[in-house]
Predict the 3D structure of the following.
Amino acid sequence: MAATNQRLEVTLDTQLESVDLAENIVTRVAQEAGFGEDDLHKLGMAVREGVINAYNYGNCQDKRKKIHLAVELEPETMVVHIVDEGCGFELSEVEDPLTEENLLRTSGRGIFLMRAFMDDLAVRRGPTGGADLVMIKKLPHPVSGNGHS
Amino acid sequence: MTLRGTCRQIDDVAIVDFSGKITLGEGSATLRQTVRELVGAGQRKILLNLGDVDYIDSSGIGELVGAYTTVRSASGELKLMQLTKRVKDLIQITRLFTVFDVQSDEAAAIVSFRAK
């Protein structure tokens, strides 16, 4: 995926193994796009957290549901979509894990980590009503021109 | 690489040398089971050596917090030791450095238990 405006889509089963698989797929694409080791770690971890979110909270570990992963390389950014088949949620509903009352909670840090490790994070409504997590990371070396794949 | 933990004892401090990843699934379960077994066996001073743990995700962080509360609930102390840079960064951005007592080396950690 060296050229710009390319898109890779993968449909994943709702199972634990999909977490590692998604992380591996996205870090490979990111590596080819020129991201350094530190950014690869952050991207991989953000994707990991996104798929964990889809597995646990979106699809509620229901094996009949799917997790849809898409990676897009745009001229200046890498965009990752993680779409589940749950009921969706609003970012504003997510509690801040850094507040004193939430520090000792054993869950609830995934969205925070995605935000910390990516340049932008949004939650949209997916085609089946589930959450479409949209994560954006600026490319280390933006590609000039409007290259088509 | 899954998580492996090896337990040893120095005085009344139980030290667990972990290596691998503390992530959703097996890694988190190994950490939870190890700490629960130690507490169940009467250990009240537990030191987790994370020097060979190169990756922790949000589930792993949650499990560390769970381990902390499990030990505290038994009136014990749990400390962390030899964090890698990435794990240290994670503990910092999640503000958990205000919760965990993080020691740089084993000797200092043992002394810090005695100081109580």
User: Anything to note?
Assistant: Chain A is about 30% helix and 25% strand. The mean pLDDT of chain A is 92. Strands of chain A lie at 6-13, 66-73, 77-83, 120-125, 131-138.
